[in-house]
């Protein structure tokens, strides 16, 4: 069964274990290809909170192997089963990670993740919900320039200040509401909240907390970052697998 190919919690196909016989398993590890495992840690949200920045920063760590694209396995692609698998191969001691911010607001996601890998560590990047809503709106505006104004979408009644909480940009930012669903399946100690604001003002400090939470050696430090004044947030001096500096793309840090 596909589930046995990728056991939860980093068990993996040890050399000589299930999944193709001892010799093949040993060869796989010797050749440095590693094994596909279910993610032991997932950045589950929040959209426009700084999830891409966090993932890119974490990928600098030699013991983190993360899929670059958002796999959307536990929301959009769940029916495809484990045979549909985008996870990178990992070696012994490495952590498999992925990030899909829409998981945080997907009702079925906590139960699905819990049933497949109960020990998965969850990371939630949060920022001021108003700033987050504006950033969300700005992203939509860049794709659909003719959408209504931010104010008209936000307020049901401008004079009374009544907010339309059914609008997704507002709804996503009601963090406590979504968190209730996650706490039905995961203890609070298994969830780390990362500050999107501190990810910009003190990336090394926030990454220190994340590395501790994941049980990783604190390898990512101040020396990995420089502040890009044009973009208004930190960039990596060297990206994963490259000797060149790396800033997030032009879709990040919109005015």
From TrEMBL:
Q: Name one Pfam family in it.
A: Sulfotransfer_1
Using the UniProt annotation, give all residue ranges assigned to the region (Disordered): 1-21
Biased composition (Gly residues) is annotated at 8-21
According to its UniProt record, the EC number is 2.8.2.-
Q: What is its main location?
A: membrane
Q: Which family does it belong to?
A: Belongs to the sulfotransferase 1 family.
The protein's name in its UniProt record: Sulfotransferase
